[in-house]
Amino acid sequence: MFAPSVPKPMGPPRVEVIRDSGSERGSVGPPPEVETDSDVDSETHRNRRREEARRRREEERRRCDQAFQERLEEKARAKAAERDRDINNLISRAKALTMDVEDFLVAVDGIVVTGESRQKGGELLATASQTMLELHMVQGVNLDPLVSSLRQAKVGLSKHLARSDAAAAAAAPPPPPGNGTQHGRGGSDALESIALAQIKFETGRLKEDTLCSMSAAVPIQADRLRDIAKVTVPDVRKTVDRLREAMKSYAGCRSCDVVVLRAAQEKCEMALQWITQVEKRMQSEQIYLDQKQPARKVDFLVFSPGTAVSIYEFFQKFEAWARGRLSKDTMANMLYTEYLDKSITCRNKELEEIKLSYSAMKALLFRTYGRPDTVAELYLNNIRQVKPPTSKTDVAGECRQAKEVYGHVVTLTTLEESEGVPVTTVMEHIYRNQFIKSLVAVLPKITRSKFMNKLEDEDLHVIAGKPYIKDIIALLRNEYRRLEVETEIDAAERVEKSVKATSAHQISVAAQSSSKSESSEEGPSGMGVHMMNSEVPG
Question: Taking a C-beta distance cutoff of 8 angstroms, is the pair 325, 296 a contact?
Answer without folding.
Answer: yes
